[in-house]
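Here is a typical protein record:
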Amino acid sequence: MSEVVVTASTQDVLGKAATASEGVITKQELELRPVYRVGQLLETVPGLVVTVHSGEGKANQYLLRGFNLDHGTDLATFVGGMPVNARTHAHGQGYTDLNFLIPEAAAGVRFTKGPYYATEGDFSSVGANHLGLVAELPGQVSASAGTVGDQRLFAGTTLELRGGDRLILAGEAVHLDGPWDHPDNLRKTNLMLRYVGEAGLSLTALYYRGLWNATTDQPERAMRQGLISRFGTLDPSDGGGSERFSLSAEYARDLGLAFGGGRIEANAYAIRSQLTLFNDFTHFLDDSANGDQHGQNDRRTTAGGALSYAVRTTLLGLPTDAIVGLQGRYDRLYVDARHTRARASLTTLLADRVAEWNLSAYGEATVHFGHHARAVGGLRADHFAASDTNLVGGISGDQQAGLLQPKGSLILGPWMRTELYLSAGRGFHSNDVRAGTLSDVGVVARPPFLVKSKGYEVGLRTSAVPHLQAAVTLFQAEFASELTYNADVGQTEAGRPGRRRGVEITAQYRPRPWIELSANLAFSRARYTDPDPAGDHIEDAPAFVGSAGVLVDNLGPWFGAVELRDLGAHALSSDDLHRSDGYREVNLDLGYKLTPTLRVQLDVFNLFDSRQNAADYVYVDRLPGEPAQGVEDRHIHPLEPRSARLAVTARF
């Protein structure tokens, strides 16, 4: 019999999903997408945009459903069961750096949106992404080089052990300058050692180290005055370094009838990481002699795990899928902020030792009412505690908080391969535990440790048209406090309450086994909900996010993809007097299989050489000779100009 290979970017979850906006991305799409940086693997999630406003070694910027999620707040991300979001981070709450992930090691993405899932906790109110790690990696060596000073070497293989067990080894070395006048000179090393057992146990060790320079967002007036070019920087000493080492274990097993049936899953992890960043956003606003560069240090150990038990049972005589679970995490960290000049420390501004932990329990049941209706009900309980020791004479103390979060969905269908979903739920994100200040009466005033959120959705998913999967979702999300970016300290901070309302439309069409066409559109309206004369527009919240693309695989020896990304116009200030035009970018991936074991691949990024901005903000900074109070200006980080990358991969 001849082999037929079918291109598919997503799994069909009709009859299984709890909402219209969840899904599973296959490894095949991850491999076909043109990806400039590893974080853009997450752009396979419909409506999610991944961009940057600084050096490539930092965590990316994430935007979804009208939210500018900064470096990861409210977008929970996991790799191989390990949480990536960092709590009480030196640079931003929920900091999500994926530079430690080797792209070839990613097995796919399971994603959810909204606070409707009892299994999802901190940072998941807008969305959650679970990247799996491969169970097998074909032996291969790959080398690539590009037009913006980028080179990469990758090697990986799978060793077969006794009894069907496998040992996966992989490593990559990356260098990237980018188009910047002061090159990023990113030097990145990743190593992976992974054991996958036939009995359901996997063990993974990951190591990452990166060093880089950074061109942050720069004031437009500096470009108009000729002080710097569009790709220049006022402080070429900005940059950073990061290192991460992790050990993790995952276990999954279907239990026999003697143990009550069902399935048990467990994971455990230990992570040691450190990060140093140097960023100068306001230039000479605070210190006219030495400049305003901040050095931020974050050193932490994170340990935790999860245990769940899922079983098919009956409730009041109705077939029911039930799951209960426990999750726990402990972070012990040192964070500081220093006033620096050319990376040399001048003054320690903040320094804290923090211990933070949480214990969470959840239960969820899906009750099936015949073949055309089911209901999902869940309850999640989270308890958080933290101890903060301030080392520079500020506030020290302990905090505790807990939340109960009910969640539920009603699914009607399928009829004619179409389902209707109604969902509601409550969620939260944790705040930086250092965010305490003294009030006028000497009482410690803090923003809430846990910030409540709630969401509602109505959605429709259909596969009624042959070869087409489509979904439409109406959503509303509310937060008791928005996290907003503060350029003065280069950090996110708790802000005003806000609400988003919008609609998402996604579709994938496969007219032939070797081709898929896809489109994802998200429209939203983001507003603060408290009265304030400053205005009600939420800054940096895009009203439109869109993407469209074509994936081709096994068209004879040809494979590839072309993708359009569109980030719509949005307010840069709460009074809407300053606005961004957003950006549009087309990326291309074209590959050819020279032999069954040898292929070449050409990636072209920003194919039409768009001169728009990847990120822009409005805030006050000061250049030499300007008034002491500084000047409010737009600060931009341009899209990289058109560039190309050629890769050669040999399998063995």
